[in-house]
Amino acid sequence: MEPLAQRLRPRTLDEVCGQRHLLAPGQVFRRTIDSGKIPNMIFYGPSGVGKTTVAGIIAANSGMRLYKLNGTTASTSDIKSVLGDIGTLNAEGGILLYLDEIQYFNKRQQQSLLECVEQGTVTLIASTTENPYFYVYNALLSRCTVFEFKSLTAQDIEQGLRGAARRLGEADGIPVAIPQDALSYLAQSAGGDMRKALGNLEFAVTAAPVQDGTRTVTLEMVTQVAQRTAMRYDKLGDDHYDIVSAYQKSMRGSDPDAALHYLARLLEAGDLPSACRRLMVCACEDVGLAYPQIIPIVKAAVDAANMLGLPEARIPLADAVVLVATSPKSNSAYKGIDAALADVRAGRSGPIPRQLQNKHFDGEDAAVKGQHYRYAHDYPHHWVKQQYLPDAIKDRKYYTFGDNKNEQAAAAYWNRVKDGE
Fold first, then answer.
1. Confidence (pTM)
2. How far is CA 2 from CA 60, 199, 309, in A?
3. Given CA atoms 328, 332, 335, 338 in this order, what sign does their dihedral have?
4. What's the pLDDT tens digit per position in 102-120?
5. Residue 293 needs a FRET pair 20 to 30 A away by CA distance; which of 143, 156, 183, 258 works?
Protein backbone atom coordinates (compact mmCIF):
# COMPACT_ATOMS: atom_id res chain seq x y z
CA MET A 1 0.00 0.00 0.00
CA GLU A 2 1.19 3.52 -0.77
CA PRO A 3 2.71 5.21 2.33
CA LEU A 4 0.49 7.70 4.14
CA ALA A 5 2.93 10.55 3.51
CA GLN A 6 2.54 9.97 -0.23
CA ARG A 7 -1.24 9.57 -0.13
CA LEU A 8 -1.72 12.73 1.90
CA ARG A 9 0.83 14.88 0.11
CA PRO A 10 -0.46 18.49 -0.10
CA ARG A 11 -1.81 19.58 -3.46
CA THR A 12 -1.43 23.35 -3.04
CA LEU A 13 1.17 25.58 -1.45
CA ASP A 14 -1.40 26.70 1.13
CA GLU A 15 -1.76 23.10 2.34
CA VAL A 16 1.97 22.72 3.03
CA CYS A 17 2.79 22.78 6.74
CA GLY A 18 5.57 25.12 7.79
CA GLN A 19 8.02 27.01 5.55
CA ARG A 20 6.02 30.21 5.93
CA HIS A 21 9.19 32.24 5.29
CA LEU A 22 8.90 30.95 1.71
CA LEU A 23 5.25 30.05 1.17
CA ALA A 24 3.26 32.74 2.97
CA PRO A 25 1.45 35.14 0.60
CA GLY A 26 3.65 38.11 -0.17
CA GLN A 27 6.97 36.31 0.27
CA VAL A 28 9.35 36.59 -2.70
CA PHE A 29 9.39 32.83 -3.29
CA ARG A 30 5.59 32.61 -3.26
CA ARG A 31 5.16 35.60 -5.55
CA THR A 32 7.66 34.13 -8.01
CA ILE A 33 5.91 30.76 -8.12
CA ASP A 34 2.48 32.38 -8.44
CA SER A 35 3.75 34.38 -11.41
CA GLY A 36 4.18 31.16 -13.38
CA LYS A 37 7.77 32.03 -14.31
CA ILE A 38 9.71 29.25 -12.64
CA PRO A 39 13.46 29.90 -12.21
CA ASN A 40 16.15 27.29 -11.67
CA MET A 41 16.22 26.57 -7.95
CA ILE A 42 17.96 24.51 -5.32
CA PHE A 43 16.02 23.53 -2.20
CA TYR A 44 18.30 23.01 0.77
CA GLY A 45 17.16 21.54 4.08
CA PRO A 46 16.65 18.40 6.16
CA SER A 47 14.52 15.50 4.99
CA GLY A 48 10.79 15.41 5.55
CA VAL A 49 10.19 19.16 5.53
CA GLY A 50 8.42 19.56 2.18
CA LYS A 51 11.10 20.01 -0.51
CA THR A 52 9.74 17.28 -2.79
CA THR A 53 6.14 18.27 -2.08
CA VAL A 54 6.71 21.90 -3.02
CA ALA A 55 8.57 20.90 -6.19
CA GLY A 56 5.68 18.65 -7.20
CA ILE A 57 3.12 21.40 -6.63
CA ILE A 58 5.18 23.82 -8.69
CA ALA A 59 5.45 21.30 -11.51
CA ALA A 60 1.73 20.49 -11.45
CA ASN A 61 0.81 24.16 -11.82
CA SER A 62 3.52 25.08 -14.33
CA GLY A 63 2.20 23.25 -17.38
CA MET A 64 5.61 21.67 -17.86
CA ARG A 65 6.38 17.99 -18.12
CA LEU A 66 7.84 16.78 -14.82
CA TYR A 67 10.78 14.39 -14.72
CA LYS A 68 12.09 13.08 -11.42
CA LEU A 69 15.59 11.75 -10.83
CA ASN A 70 17.32 10.81 -7.60
CA GLY A 71 21.03 11.43 -7.20
CA THR A 72 21.51 8.16 -5.33
CA THR A 73 20.30 6.00 -8.23
CA ALA A 74 20.29 8.05 -11.44
CA SER A 75 23.05 7.66 -13.99
CA THR A 76 24.36 9.91 -16.76
CA SER A 77 22.26 7.92 -19.25
CA ASP A 78 19.14 8.79 -17.22
CA ILE A 79 20.01 12.47 -17.59
CA LYS A 80 20.55 12.02 -21.35
CA SER A 81 17.17 10.33 -21.62
CA VAL A 82 15.47 13.36 -20.07
CA LEU A 83 17.41 15.79 -22.24
CA GLY A 84 16.51 13.74 -25.28
CA ASP A 85 12.88 14.83 -24.91
CA ILE A 86 13.77 18.50 -25.36
CA GLY A 87 11.74 19.92 -28.26
CA THR A 88 9.59 16.82 -28.68
CA LEU A 89 5.83 16.42 -28.29
CA ASN A 90 6.47 14.73 -24.94
CA ALA A 91 7.60 18.06 -23.56
CA GLU A 92 5.89 20.70 -25.63
CA GLY A 93 5.13 22.74 -22.52
CA GLY A 94 8.75 22.59 -21.44
CA ILE A 95 10.68 20.29 -19.13
CA LEU A 96 10.89 20.65 -15.39
CA LEU A 97 13.53 18.33 -13.96
CA TYR A 98 13.30 17.61 -10.25
CA LEU A 99 16.64 16.23 -9.11
CA ASP A 100 16.51 14.93 -5.54
CA GLU A 101 19.74 14.50 -3.51
CA ILE A 102 21.84 16.37 -6.07
CA GLN A 103 24.85 16.14 -3.76
CA TYR A 104 25.29 12.52 -4.87
CA PHE A 105 25.78 13.56 -8.51
CA ASN A 106 29.45 13.81 -9.40
CA LYS A 107 30.91 16.84 -11.15
CA ARG A 108 30.59 15.33 -14.62
CA GLN A 109 26.92 14.51 -14.08
CA GLN A 110 26.19 18.01 -12.81
CA GLN A 111 28.08 19.52 -15.74
CA SER A 112 25.89 17.59 -18.18
CA LEU A 113 22.98 19.79 -17.09
CA LEU A 114 24.75 23.11 -17.57
CA GLU A 115 24.03 23.84 -21.21
CA CYS A 116 20.30 23.13 -21.13
CA VAL A 117 19.86 25.00 -17.84
CA GLU A 118 21.69 27.99 -19.25
CA GLN A 119 19.67 27.96 -22.48
CA GLY A 120 16.38 27.56 -20.64
CA THR A 121 15.38 24.35 -22.41
CA VAL A 122 15.18 22.65 -19.00
CA THR A 123 14.06 24.18 -15.72
CA LEU A 124 15.91 22.59 -12.85
CA ILE A 125 14.68 22.21 -9.30
CA ALA A 126 17.24 20.32 -7.25
CA SER A 127 17.07 19.41 -3.60
CA THR A 128 19.75 18.50 -1.11
CA THR A 129 20.05 17.80 2.60
CA GLU A 130 23.65 19.06 2.53
CA ASN A 131 25.00 22.58 2.13
CA PRO A 132 24.83 23.23 -1.65
CA TYR A 133 27.76 25.63 -1.48
CA PHE A 134 29.94 22.66 -0.58
CA TYR A 135 28.40 19.93 -2.73
CA VAL A 136 27.04 21.53 -5.89
CA TYR A 137 29.33 22.38 -8.80
CA ASN A 138 29.95 26.15 -8.80
CA ALA A 139 28.98 26.72 -12.42
CA LEU A 140 25.61 25.03 -11.86
CA LEU A 141 25.12 26.71 -8.49
CA SER A 142 25.62 30.14 -10.06
CA ARG A 143 22.70 29.50 -12.40
CA CYS A 144 20.28 28.60 -9.61
CA THR A 145 18.69 30.40 -6.68
CA VAL A 146 19.10 28.63 -3.34
CA PHE A 147 16.15 28.48 -0.96
CA GLU A 148 16.54 27.04 2.53
CA PHE A 149 13.79 24.82 3.91
CA LYS A 150 13.83 24.77 7.69
CA SER A 151 13.01 22.01 10.17
CA LEU A 152 9.35 21.88 11.01
CA THR A 153 8.26 22.92 14.47
CA ALA A 154 6.15 20.64 16.66
CA GLN A 155 3.22 23.00 15.96
CA ASP A 156 3.71 22.57 12.19
CA ILE A 157 3.70 18.80 12.57
CA GLU A 158 0.65 18.85 14.85
CA GLN A 159 -1.20 20.74 12.13
CA GLY A 160 -0.21 18.13 9.55
CA LEU A 161 -1.13 15.23 11.82
CA ARG A 162 -4.59 16.64 12.52
CA GLY A 163 -5.28 16.91 8.81
CA ALA A 164 -3.87 13.44 8.16
CA ALA A 165 -6.00 11.87 10.90
CA ARG A 166 -9.11 13.53 9.48
CA ARG A 167 -8.37 12.32 5.95
CA LEU A 168 -7.56 8.81 7.19
CA GLY A 169 -10.92 8.67 8.91
CA GLU A 170 -12.69 9.89 5.79
CA ALA A 171 -10.95 7.31 3.64
CA ASP A 172 -11.80 4.41 5.96
CA GLY A 173 -15.23 5.64 6.93
CA ILE A 174 -14.19 5.39 10.60
CA PRO A 175 -13.30 8.66 12.39
CA VAL A 176 -9.85 8.85 14.01
CA ALA A 177 -9.50 10.53 17.41
CA ILE A 178 -6.14 11.60 18.84
CA PRO A 179 -6.08 13.20 22.30
CA GLN A 180 -3.78 16.21 22.66
CA ASP A 181 -1.18 14.35 24.73
CA ALA A 182 -0.79 11.67 22.07
CA LEU A 183 -0.74 14.27 19.29
CA SER A 184 1.96 16.30 21.08
CA TYR A 185 4.10 13.22 21.66
CA LEU A 186 3.92 12.22 18.00
CA ALA A 187 4.83 15.75 16.92
CA GLN A 188 7.73 16.10 19.35
CA SER A 189 9.17 12.65 18.67
CA ALA A 190 9.35 13.24 14.92
CA GLY A 191 12.30 15.62 15.25
CA GLY A 192 10.92 18.04 12.66
CA ASP A 193 10.32 15.33 10.03
CA MET A 194 6.73 15.24 8.76
CA ARG A 195 7.31 12.01 6.87
CA LYS A 196 8.42 10.32 10.08
CA ALA A 197 5.45 11.70 11.98
CA LEU A 198 2.97 10.48 9.36
CA GLY A 199 4.55 7.04 9.30
CA ASN A 200 4.20 6.76 13.09
CA LEU A 201 0.61 8.00 12.89
CA GLU A 202 -0.31 5.45 10.25
CA PHE A 203 1.19 2.64 12.34
CA ALA A 204 -0.71 3.75 15.45
CA VAL A 205 -4.02 4.20 13.60
CA THR A 206 -3.72 0.74 12.07
CA ALA A 207 -3.26 -0.77 15.53
CA ALA A 208 -6.00 1.29 17.21
CA PRO A 209 -9.17 -0.69 18.00
CA VAL A 210 -12.57 0.56 16.91
CA GLN A 211 -14.75 1.52 19.87
CA ASP A 212 -18.14 3.14 19.49
CA GLY A 213 -17.47 3.71 15.82
CA THR A 214 -14.18 5.59 16.37
CA ARG A 215 -10.50 4.69 16.29
CA THR A 216 -8.82 6.34 19.29
CA VAL A 217 -5.02 6.65 19.25
CA THR A 218 -3.82 6.83 22.86
CA LEU A 219 -0.59 8.16 24.32
CA GLU A 220 0.39 4.61 25.29
CA MET A 221 0.10 3.53 21.65
CA VAL A 222 2.20 6.33 20.23
CA THR A 223 4.94 5.92 22.85
CA GLN A 224 5.33 2.33 21.66
CA VAL A 225 5.48 3.42 18.02
CA ALA A 226 7.83 6.38 18.56
CA GLN A 227 9.90 5.25 21.52
CA ARG A 228 12.98 7.17 20.48
CA THR A 229 13.16 10.67 19.11
CA ALA A 230 13.87 11.00 15.41
CA MET A 231 16.51 13.61 16.19
CA ARG A 232 18.35 14.61 13.04
CA TYR A 233 21.96 13.64 13.21
CA ASP A 234 24.47 12.55 10.61
CA LYS A 235 28.11 12.37 11.62
CA LEU A 236 29.11 13.46 8.12
CA GLY A 237 26.37 16.03 7.55
CA ASP A 238 25.50 19.61 8.40
CA ASP A 239 23.51 18.61 11.48
CA HIS A 240 26.64 17.17 13.07
CA TYR A 241 28.62 20.35 12.53
CA ASP A 242 25.75 22.55 13.68
CA ILE A 243 25.39 20.61 16.94
CA VAL A 244 29.08 20.47 17.80
CA SER A 245 29.40 24.16 16.90
CA ALA A 246 26.51 25.07 19.20
CA TYR A 247 27.98 22.82 21.91
CA GLN A 248 31.32 24.62 21.95
CA LYS A 249 29.84 28.08 21.52
CA SER A 250 27.51 27.49 24.46
CA MET A 251 30.45 26.53 26.69
CA ARG A 252 32.45 29.51 25.41
CA GLY A 253 29.46 31.75 26.06
CA SER A 254 29.24 30.49 29.67
CA ASP A 255 25.74 29.03 29.28
CA PRO A 256 25.79 25.68 31.14
CA ASP A 257 22.14 24.92 30.33
CA ALA A 258 22.62 25.19 26.57
CA ALA A 259 25.94 23.34 26.78
CA LEU A 260 24.26 20.43 28.59
CA HIS A 261 21.46 20.41 26.01
CA TYR A 262 23.87 20.01 23.10
CA LEU A 263 25.92 17.48 25.05
CA ALA A 264 22.71 15.48 25.50
CA ARG A 265 22.03 15.60 21.76
CA LEU A 266 25.53 14.33 20.99
CA LEU A 267 25.26 11.55 23.53
CA GLU A 268 21.75 10.55 22.44
CA ALA A 269 23.16 10.16 18.93
CA GLY A 270 25.97 8.02 20.34
CA ASP A 271 28.65 10.49 19.29
CA LEU A 272 30.91 10.22 22.33
CA PRO A 273 34.12 11.10 20.38
CA SER A 274 32.78 14.50 19.25
CA ALA A 275 31.48 15.29 22.75
CA CYS A 276 34.91 14.57 24.23
CA ARG A 277 36.97 16.26 21.53
CA ARG A 278 35.07 19.56 21.54
CA LEU A 279 35.06 19.62 25.33
CA MET A 280 38.83 19.23 25.42
CA VAL A 281 39.28 21.88 22.73
CA CYS A 282 37.05 24.31 24.62
CA ALA A 283 38.96 23.82 27.87
CA CYS A 284 42.22 24.71 26.12
CA GLU A 285 40.97 27.35 23.69
CA ASP A 286 38.30 29.20 25.62
CA VAL A 287 39.19 28.80 29.30
CA GLY A 288 42.91 28.47 28.76
CA LEU A 289 45.16 30.55 30.98
CA ALA A 290 42.28 32.02 32.95
CA TYR A 291 42.17 28.66 34.74
CA PRO A 292 44.99 26.48 33.35
CA GLN A 293 44.36 23.73 35.92
CA ILE A 294 41.14 22.95 34.01
CA ILE A 295 43.06 21.20 31.24
CA PRO A 296 44.16 18.13 33.28
CA ILE A 297 40.76 18.12 35.04
CA VAL A 298 38.87 17.94 31.75
CA LYS A 299 41.36 15.40 30.38
CA ALA A 300 40.65 13.19 33.40
CA ALA A 301 36.89 13.53 32.80
CA VAL A 302 37.30 12.64 29.12
CA ASP A 303 39.45 9.62 30.02
CA ALA A 304 36.83 8.50 32.54
CA ALA A 305 34.04 8.89 29.97
CA ASN A 306 35.89 6.80 27.41
CA MET A 307 36.68 4.15 30.01
CA LEU A 308 33.07 3.97 31.21
CA GLY A 309 31.34 4.22 27.85
CA LEU A 310 27.71 5.21 27.44
CA PRO A 311 25.42 5.70 29.27
CA GLU A 312 27.67 6.27 32.32
CA ALA A 313 30.00 8.52 30.30
CA ARG A 314 27.37 11.24 30.56
CA ILE A 315 28.25 11.81 34.23
CA PRO A 316 31.94 12.86 34.03
CA LEU A 317 31.21 14.72 30.79
CA ALA A 318 28.38 16.69 32.40
CA ASP A 319 30.70 17.59 35.31
CA ALA A 320 33.36 18.83 32.90
CA VAL A 321 30.93 20.68 30.61
CA VAL A 322 29.44 22.63 33.52
CA LEU A 323 32.93 23.38 34.83
CA VAL A 324 34.09 24.71 31.45
CA ALA A 325 30.90 26.73 30.94
CA THR A 326 31.12 28.38 34.37
CA SER A 327 34.90 29.00 34.42
CA PRO A 328 36.52 32.35 33.61
CA LYS A 329 37.53 32.61 29.97
CA SER A 330 40.69 33.58 28.12
CA ASN A 331 41.78 32.93 24.55
CA SER A 332 45.08 34.81 24.89
CA ALA A 333 47.30 31.76 24.25
CA TYR A 334 45.03 30.64 21.39
CA LYS A 335 45.34 34.05 19.74
CA GLY A 336 49.09 34.05 20.39
CA ILE A 337 49.78 30.73 18.65
CA ASP A 338 47.56 31.69 15.70
CA ALA A 339 49.49 34.95 15.28
CA ALA A 340 52.80 33.09 15.46
CA LEU A 341 51.60 30.52 12.92
CA ALA A 342 50.49 33.31 10.58
CA ASP A 343 54.00 34.77 10.64
CA VAL A 344 55.66 31.40 10.05
CA ARG A 345 53.33 30.56 7.15
CA ALA A 346 53.93 33.99 5.61
CA GLY A 347 57.70 33.47 5.78
CA ARG A 348 58.22 36.07 8.48
CA SER A 349 61.06 34.35 10.26
CA GLY A 350 64.85 34.33 10.16
CA PRO A 351 67.96 32.59 11.48
CA ILE A 352 67.96 31.49 15.12
CA PRO A 353 69.87 34.08 17.19
CA ARG A 354 73.46 32.94 17.77
CA GLN A 355 73.08 32.84 21.56
CA LEU A 356 70.23 30.34 21.27
CA GLN A 357 71.79 27.94 18.79
CA ASN A 358 72.72 24.43 19.81
CA LYS A 359 76.31 24.65 18.50
CA HIS A 360 79.09 25.89 20.76
CA PHE A 361 81.75 26.73 18.25
CA ASP A 362 82.18 29.42 15.61
CA GLY A 363 83.25 29.12 12.00
CA GLU A 364 86.18 31.06 10.63
CA ASP A 365 83.77 33.50 8.98
CA ALA A 366 82.06 34.51 12.27
CA ALA A 367 82.54 38.25 12.84
CA VAL A 368 81.96 37.91 16.57
CA LYS A 369 83.31 34.83 18.33
CA GLY A 370 81.46 33.16 21.20
CA GLN A 371 77.87 32.19 21.78
CA HIS A 372 77.23 34.72 24.58
CA TYR A 373 74.13 32.88 25.85
CA ARG A 374 72.89 34.11 29.21
CA TYR A 375 71.66 31.31 31.50
CA ALA A 376 68.50 32.73 33.12
CA HIS A 377 68.95 30.82 36.39
CA ASP A 378 72.19 32.66 37.06
CA TYR A 379 70.29 35.94 37.45
CA PRO A 380 67.88 37.38 40.05
CA HIS A 381 64.34 36.07 39.70
CA HIS A 382 65.71 33.59 37.11
CA TRP A 383 65.38 36.16 34.35
CA VAL A 384 67.74 38.25 32.25
CA LYS A 385 67.05 40.48 29.30
CA GLN A 386 68.02 38.68 26.13
CA GLN A 387 66.89 38.48 22.50
CA TYR A 388 65.06 35.25 21.72
CA LEU A 389 63.23 36.01 18.46
CA PRO A 390 65.06 36.15 15.11
CA ASP A 391 66.41 39.58 14.13
CA ALA A 392 63.74 40.12 11.45
CA ILE A 393 60.90 39.91 13.99
CA LYS A 394 62.71 40.67 17.24
CA ASP A 395 60.05 43.15 18.41
CA ARG A 396 57.06 41.01 17.47
CA LYS A 397 54.38 40.48 20.17
CA TYR A 398 52.14 37.43 20.01
CA TYR A 399 50.89 37.08 23.55
CA THR A 400 48.99 39.71 25.52
CA PHE A 401 48.01 38.99 29.11
CA GLY A 402 44.28 38.42 29.48
CA ASP A 403 42.18 40.50 31.84
CA ASN A 404 41.35 37.58 34.13
CA LYS A 405 42.70 37.25 37.67
CA ASN A 406 45.20 34.50 36.87
CA GLU A 407 46.89 36.23 33.93
CA GLN A 408 46.82 39.63 35.59
CA ALA A 409 48.71 38.16 38.56
CA ALA A 410 51.34 36.82 36.17
CA ALA A 411 51.49 40.19 34.40
CA ALA A 412 52.01 42.03 37.68
CA TYR A 413 54.80 39.64 38.68
CA TRP A 414 56.69 40.07 35.42
CA ASN A 415 56.23 43.83 35.44
CA ARG A 416 57.90 43.96 38.85
CA VAL A 417 60.75 41.70 37.72
CA LYS A 418 61.40 43.45 34.44
CA ASP A 419 61.01 46.97 35.82
CA GLY A 420 63.79 46.18 38.31
CA GLU A 421 66.24 45.11 35.64
1. 0.58
2. 20, 11, 42
3. negative
4. 988 888 888 888 888 888 8
5. 258
